[in-house]
Design goal:
Elements (H helix, E strand, L loop, with lengths): L1 H138 L3 H49 L10 E5 L4 H7 L4 H10 L2 E3 L6 E5 L3 H17 L4 H30 L6 H9 L4 E2 L2 E2 H19 L3 H10 L14 H11 L4 H9 L9 H15 L8 H16 L4 E7 L4 E6 L6 H18 L7 E5 L10
Parallel strand pairs: 7-8
Antiparallel strand pairs: 1-3, 2-3, 4-5, 6-7
Helix pairs in contact: 2-8, 2-14, 4-6, 5-6, 6-7, 8-9, 8-12, 9-11, 9-12, 10-11, 11-12
């Protein structure tokens, strides 16, 4: 049994040793085969690399040959181009040389001609001096005297021609402008109708009886003093039967006093407490009426987005007059006229109407604020952020600044039309006479004027000129100068016609 085991172990050991050696043998065979295969592949790769190398070298040589051929061709082309350009440059140089030779020849010719011309000029100068000496000897005038005489003649001729031209151009312009202006203004006035009432600085309150005067005065004058203190209005109680006169420059205060006094007379209870109550009530009524009239005026003109304070100031204009013309109605008329003329001319009618209504807004406060109504109005409109075009038209309507927009010119014209309309305004006799005298004085200040007459309420000045000192053409310039003087020295509504008359009379007696 033991021997069997030993034999088995022996067989196993022999098998293991044999298997090991067999495995080693097989591995060596595989390594040898792999080595042979690798060597074969390396040899093949080397052969392939040699082949590719030869091919690439061949291709590179061919490409180098092609580039060299192309470079040679380009070199030949450039050489040919350079040769062509060189030939052109040589040709141009030859032409330039020829031209320079021609120019030199021409310069020589010109120099010769210049010498001849200088010689001729010197001869002409001598000849002119001789002629001038002969002319001075013949005319017995020096050169300076002759020149002055000639210039004077030329100036007279030019002045005459200029006067004729001005006359013709004015005639042509007036023929067209007057026609168009008449159409626009007549159309505007036809569409506008405004009633004007004459107001003054006093109001009259009717009394039921003269007994009421004593009640208004009160014990020791306490009632009348209270009323005058609260309203700022003077009460004049004189011999006028059944009437009391209220006097105040501020029309709104006068209206408040009139309203309060009428209420007191109607109520019958007149004492300081009641007077104060009625005055306060009248102030509220007048404030409401002012606001209502401002809103009504704005509605009639068709304006929107006006500041409430401006609307109140517009209403205050109802109680303000200028030369007897109601300012609110005047402002409405100016707004209508400016708007209609703007429509006819294709301008901004909305701006024209707005500026026309607001152009005298400063007169609502000129009793309270010092300064001209134009400056006051401009400050008010700027304070309430009014449109700049409207502010400019208001500022320019009395020529305080030069009008720069057509709407400003239309407002200025509409203001003059409304103010100058017959019956629209009253003028004191003294101012009227002074204006007529000033018109005649301006006309008589011209030496060629013989007599002057201001006629048609100062809207025309008729001038007789001295026929022996001025001709028909010179009258055109004189008329323009007189009109210019009137515009610069006088303030007047509307326009003034300057009418020059020249006549020649010849008298002979038959004996």
């Amino acid at each position: 049994m033991f021997i069997k085991i030993l034999l088995a172990l022996l067989y196993i050991g022999v098998g293991l040793v044999g298997g090991y050696f067999l495995r080693q043998y097989m591995s060596e065979c595989k390594i040898n085969n792999a080595t042979k295969t690798a060597n074969s592949m390396v040899e093949d790769a080397i052969k392939e690399g040699e082949r590719v190398k030869k091919e690439k070298l061949l291709e590179a040589k061919e490409e180098i040959h092609a580039l060299r051929t192309e470079l040679d061709k380009e070199s030949r082309d450039r050489r040919n181009e350079l040769q062509r350009l060189e030939k052109r440059v040589i040709f141009k140089e030859e032409n330039l040389d020829k031209k320079l030779e021609n120019i030199e020849k021409k310069e020589e010719t010109l120099n010769e001609k210049n010498k001849k011309i200088e010689l001729k000029e010197s001869e002409l100068d001598l000849l002119l001096k001789k002629q001038l000496a002969e002319l001075e000897k013949i005319s017995q005038l020096t050169f300076e005297e002759a020149r002055e005489l000639l210039l004077a003649n030329v100036e007279n001729k030019i002045t005459r021609e200029m006067a004729i031209m001005i006359k013709n151009k004015e005639a042509e312009a007036k023929a067209e402008a007057d026609k168009k202006a008449r159409e626009i203004i007549s159309c505007a006035i036809q569409k506008c109708a405004a009633d004007h009432v004459s107001e003054s600085t006093v109001s009259v309150v009717s009394l039921p009886s003269d007994e009421m005067k004593g009640r208004i005065i009160g014990r020791e004058g306490r009632n009348i003093r209270t009323l005058e203190t609260l309203t700022g209005v003077d009460l004049i109680i004189d011999d006028t039967p059944e009437a009391v006169i209220l006097s105040a420059f501020d029309p709104i205060k006068r209206e408040i006093a009139r309203n309060a006094l009428e209420k007191l007379i109607s109520d019958g209870r007149i004492h300081p407490a009641r007077i104060e109550e009625m005055v306060n009530h009248s102030k509220k009524e007048i404030d409401d009426k002012i606001k209502e009239m401002g809103e009504q005026a704005v509605f009639e003109v068709g304006l929107h987005k006006l500041h409430p304070e401006i609307i109140k100031l517009i209403g205050r204009l109802h109680y303000r007059t200028s030369y007897g013309q109601n300012i609110l109605k005047h402002s409405l008329e100016v707004a209508y006229l400016a708007g209609v003329m703007a429509d006819e001319l294709g301008a901004n009618a909305k701006i024209a109407r707005r500026a026309g209504l607001l152009h005298d807004i400063g007169k609502a406060l000129d009793h309270e604020i010092e300064g001209p109504h134009v400056a006051i109005g401009v400050d008010i409109l700027k304070r309430y952020k009014e449109n700049n075009d409207v502010i400019h038209a208001v500022e320019a309507h009395h020529d305080d600044v030069e009008p720069k927009t057509i709407e400003a010119v239309l407002v200025q014209a509409a203001d003059a039309i409304s103010a100058a309309r017959p019956g629209a305004r009253r003028e004191t006799l003294e101012t009227y006479i002074k204006r007529l005298q000033k018109l005649e004085e301006i006309a008589m200040s011209f030496p060629e004027v013989d007599k002057s007459f201001a006629i048609q309420a100062g809207r025309e000045v008729r001038i007789l000129v001295k026929s022996d000192e001025i001709d028909d053409v010179g009258m055109v310039l004189t008329a323009k100068e007189i009109a210019q003087r009137i515009e610069n020295e006088l303030d007047y509504p509307g326009q003034i016609k300057v009418n020059l008359i020249r006549e020649t009379r010849v008298t002979e007696y038959a004996k």
